[in-house]
Structures are given as C-alpha cells and as structure tokens.
Write the structure tokens for this entry.
Amino acid sequence: MGINVKSIGLIGLGMVAGVAASFQFSAAAQRAEAPLPLEELRQLADVFGLIKTDYVESVDDRKLVEDAIAGMVASLDPHSVYLDKKAFREMRESVQGKFVGIGIEVAMEDGYVKVVSPIEDSPAYKAGLKSGDLITRLDGVPLKGMTLDDSIKKMRGEPRTKVVLTVSRKGEDKPLIVPIVREEIRVQSVKAKLIEPGYVWLRIAQFQEPTVDEMAKKLSSLYAQNPDIKGIVLDLRNDPGGVVPGAIGVSAAFLPKDSVIVSTNGQLADSKHTFYARPDDYLGGRGVADPLARLPAALKTVPLVVLVNAGSASASEIVAGALQDYKRAIVMGSQTFGKGSVQTLRQLTPETAIKLTTARYYTPKGRAIQAKGIVPDVAVDETAEGDGLNGLRLREADLVKHLANGDEAEAKPGRHDELEEELRLLALAKKQKPVEFGSKNDFQLAQALNHFKGLPVKVARVDPEDDKRAEEIVGKTEAKSGVKPEDKKAPVSKTK
C-alpha cells in the first residue's frame, strides 16, 4: 500500500506542478527570486494521493485539482475566484452585455420572482409578460424558497430551448401558463430620458463594452430634442461595476480631455498605471471611432448630480470619485460599497481562468476606494421615511478576508461572507418593496432635482460636519439660481 500511495502522490505532484506552470503570470519573470515552495507542494500531492486511495468513494482527478485551485484562490479575498467552464462563459457574456435567456429584469417578492420589467423585443416581451407579474413556477417546479440567482440560472439556457412559466397576475383569477423560447439577449446598460423639461436622468445599470457608445447616442438624442439642458442626474445606484474602460469613458464625457480618471497600484510593474480621459484608455484599443466626439461641447459644463448608494461598487465608484475630486458633480445619496480593487483575468485553458486581485484603485486626488468607498457630498436617504433596505446593506469592509484600504496596516476583520449577505438581503427584500429608479416616486431623484432648482433638499443627518458641508453646497446652488433665503423653507433633516 505504501508503494501505491507514493506512486499516486508522485503523479499528484506532477499534476500540481503542471497546474502551477500553467498560470504563466508575468510575476514569474519579474519575481524570479521567489522559488516554488516544493515542500508544501509535496504535502498537497500527498493529500491528493491519500484522497485517491483512502476516500470512501472514487473522486475524479480533474475535480480534485479544480477544487484545490478554487480553494487556493478563494482564500485570498472575496473577489479572487477560479472560473470553471460555465463561470468563464457567463463572465464573458456579462462583459459583452449579452446572454441567452428570456429577457426580463427581476426582483424577489414574497419568495417569488417578480417581473420588474421585460426587456423590449425580448422573448418575454413578445410573450406578454408585464411589470408586476409574479413567476411562481419554472417548468412546473415551484420557485418558493429558491434564491434569486438560482431562479435566474434556471431561466437561462441554450438558444432555441423552451421554458414554461407559471405566472400570477393581479386581476387574473387563475395562473397564466406562458411558454417562452430562449434567445440571445442584449442587456441595456444605459437608460436616459427627460424627466422634466431641461433635466435629464441618465442611468447606468452596469459598465459593459457598449456602455460608452450607448450613453453617447442617448445623450446626443436628448440634447437634439431639448438643447436647453439645465441639469443631468447620473444615476449609479446599485451599479455593481463592470469594465473599467466604460467607467473611464463615462467620466471623460463630463471632464476636460486628458484629465486623470483613476490610477492603480500593485506588486507588478504592469499593475501601476494611470488612466486618462483619452480615447486610448476608454476604447480599449478596439480601433473604433470615438463615440464621445459626437457629444455636444455644452455637456462638459452642464450641472451634474451623481446618485450613489451602498450598491454602487467598483467602476461606478471610479466615476463618482473622479467627478467628485474635480468638483464637476455633486455626489448625492449614501456611502458606496467600497470595492476598490482591480481583478485581472489570467486564462489557464481556452475555457477556464482565474480572476485575481492585482491592484487597488485610487481617485485622481489619490484617495483609496478599497474598503471605504465614496462618501457623498450630500447624504440623502432612499425614501422620505429613511434609508430602508439600503441602510441595512453590508459593504466591502464587512466581508470576511476583504483587502485593506492601503492606508491601514491590515484589514479589519469582516463579519460576513457574500453568501450570507445575499441570504440576508433576500430576507429583507421580502419585507420591503424596492425603489423603482427614475419613477415619480424616486425620492433621491426628486432631491437631485431640488438641488438643481435651488429648492430645499431633505438631507440625512449623519454628523454635524456632514450637515455643514450639505448646507454649504445647497447655499452655493441657491446663489447660482437666485433663490433668496426668505423665499425658501428650511431644509428638512432626518436623524438616522
């Protein structure tokens, strides 16, 4: 038996060494002085051999190695991850802004999947699904108790395959049975509209490769309809981030050319970089025409409010931080998530990769975003009654094994992992209906419009310094608008 274990262990060591060699990091050339820890790799090989010989049932070699890689990478921080074949494909689909599914935006309500809105011209849209519909079953399987992510995965699939939805609709006595054929869906990352004459609402749900081009088209169209734009609300609430060139391009649309947008710093030479408001940095070398070249020059000076909340992360924090540093915009809402780390994709095979944290992000003034986020200039709650679900969200600093800010000696211990956070938010979501961004009932959007007009803004009182800063900003707005102190009521504050 000893000979058998040893021989299997040697095979395992060869597999581990092969996996280590396949990483092909540029770090290998730049850090040649750090040899592989052969003793520890031998221990890993021994464990591999023991599992192969002694475990209660046979385990696939590939699964063992993949799980070892996944565990090693996941132990670093919440955002470093091994991407197997399926996860790698889904990540590429997300970056490109497309996936195969039925085409609906969804949320959880009372344990069921609620249709927020069908994507225009999608299979769901053509099948007649409506905002407010509750999906109770998929192919006859109840969704009650299933997580939102699992429900979404079941709705996705291969092109031209069918899924049957059971739908509960207000006003209908019986459930509706809706068969839908899956198709490739292109996600709309940018929405824009005139919410009032002269005021534009520009929402970016996620930064994707087409984001800058979509934004330029929509802003140009709105400007052609109404050249007298008095203010733009850039809505980044619940924007989880995405591709960095998209964030650079959105920032560049409102800042002077060649402005520093964001910088990165890490161990490797190629992780130390500064990105500017230049086509080379936001087009990503795609060799296409600059979409920002067609934007009206007047948009560089139009008053701007950026709405953020605890769900604004990563690329959206880059935009908010840059516009805040240059005082180009007033950032309004609540403190952002604080994901200020750079993940670099290192491909292992044609179908697998690891997403590895390689650097931290810094705003133009050198502020580290990681584990702190962007603090708004004017704190405004999610609703008139308080900050609701947003006030109960966890942030990067709450996550176990989160990366330190960079100004700290080490990260403070986190309290939750991402799975716990997801389950907690699902439980809370059952008790409170989400805010529909851009609607007439959007309280924070209404406060942004009040700011433009020099009207009272209902701020969330956090501490005296925040109140003082909010009052100074409101005062400057009133001076520009010509509103006299005696013409307005005192701003209403709420104690959190």
User: Anything to note?
Assistant: The chain has 14 helices and 21 strands. The two ends are 67 Å apart (CA to CA).
